[in-house]
Design a protein that fits this description.
Helices cover 70% and strands 0% of the residues. It has five helices and no strands.
Amino acid sequence: MQRVSPSRRREEPRRSGLLGLPGRLWRGEVPLHDVFWNWAIIGGLAVNGLTTAGMFILLAVERPVAALVIGYVCSVPYNFFIAVAVWRSADRHPSSRRAANIMRYTAAIFLFLISFT
């Protein structure tokens, strides 16, 4: 049997599990900067802007139940999920605890406010 030197071993690809990126976000494995800016701020504005527009359109055509579903049932779970992702990613942030805490609380407040206004 031939021995393989440590430098020639094939590295196993990092498995992200069944859920891929959503699983990595949920576990806090995505860098805090990416989660905060890309998913909480930009993604939060996009999701909440689109669902609010959809809600107003549905209210204009007198579909209040559909407006409620589009306005809250679609956006609130996203906001909760991303707030948890930011929180967990901040726990793993390697450098400034102060910066991590600022992003953590900013995301929590921002996502709460845009969920329920």
